[in-house]
Amino acid sequence: MVEEFDVIVVGSGSGMIVASNAVESGLKVALVEKGPPLGGTCLNWGCIPSKMLIYPADVVTMIREAEKIGIKAKIEKIDFQKIMHRMRHLISEENQGMALGVERDPNIKWFKNIGEFISDYTMKVGDQKIRGEKIFIVSGARPFIPPIKGIDNVSYLTNETVLELEELPQSIIIIGGGYVGCEYGHFFAGMGSEVTIVELGPRLVPGEEPEIAELLQKEMGKRMKILTNHQVVEVREKNKIKTVVAKETASGKVKELSAEALMVAVGRKPNSDLLKPEKTGVEVDSKGFIKVNDYLETTKKNIWAFGDAINKQMFRHAANYEAQVAWHNAFSDHKVPINLSATPHAVFTHPQIASVGLTEEQAKKEGHKILVGYYHFKDTAKGSAMGSPEGFVKVIVEQNTGKI
């Protein structure tokens, strides 16, 4: 027997926006989410728990650098377990509140399992079958683990499992110098670990302006070891010590690095393979991301996708915006396209990074005639007061109009 629903939502991150809108509209809703927990990557393994960990590292770094403004302080102890337990407790409270709200609502039925499509608009979830008139795929992504020699025989951390740590590793090697790798590098260095970041590319945070990446590497390099232009070709583990073999891309020279812990932070892969979307006519790209048009419609009518399931911008605020667009387009005759051109983002390292709009390189590639301006934080009253000589703002504007 197949149970019929007006709306099926696959995923409980930004998908909860659609589920909530559907319930408020009086529709019968199915939520497919293996959980608990509810809330998706951001709440459980991403931006929220990581910031709860990074803030203590910010405080530690501030105290350590306070002498430059006349304050000499000593940190007596960093209680790593308390920091981790606090994070998990706060996340658990949020999870419990969400679960209670879903379970009490008579218009939404929570299917606590991984769902997969078996035919058009029809899913099998555990031993149950459900069908939806409209389906929203918000299935998210999981850590991508590269095919490094020996990786299957080594215990390593990801952005998910790192949150389970009870003891601070004395040393840690982080493979990947993107947002996640750099943020956790800052965290572990702040806690007192000896940190090494190994990045394949020529610079950290490759999506940022070169000047920003250069400054970040200079400042983070004061507190940890950073190897760019190095490819990890092998990992080993003996007596709980991890060894990373890294080859310099230009010279081919090989280095062996050892640490108590290893973290892999080289990107995300979509969960769409678990859904078997092809069985309902939904196509994916070569990397497994679900194909959508500018209206977030998939290749199958009445099925939409957004968030980390599509290859756009993997930020929760972007996914929340996409959720509203997808909902509007599903129930309106006047469809609107998504516009992510002004999506802001931040990187919570030390120093922190914030960015919005096109980079200088992107603007030039798009054929814009531009002017580029800089202003250093130290030249502002606030920057001078804080004793922060390293910060700056870079602005790219159209030459003729001044448009940012």
Describe the protein.
The chain has 404 residues and is α/β, with parallel strands linked by helices. It has three domains: 2-143 and 269-331, FAD/NAD(P)-binding domain, CATH 3.50.50; 151-266, FAD/NAD(P)-binding domain; 358-398, no CATH class. 27% of the residues lie in helices and 26% in strands. Strands 1, 2, 3, 4, 5, 6 and 16 form a seven-stranded mixed sheet that branches. Strands 10-9-8-14 form a four-stranded parallel sheet, with helices on one face. The chain has a three-stranded antiparallel sheet with strand order 11-12-13, with no helix packed on it. Helix 1 (15-24) runs parallel beside helix 7 and helix 3 runs antiparallel to helix 4 (80-104). It is globular, with a radius of gyration of 23 Å.
The CATH architecture of the largest domain would be 3-Layer(bba) Sandwich
Tally of domains: 3
- Which value, in Å, is the CA radius of gyration? 23 Å
Largest sheet, strands/sense/barrel: 7 strands, mixed
Strand portion = 25-35%
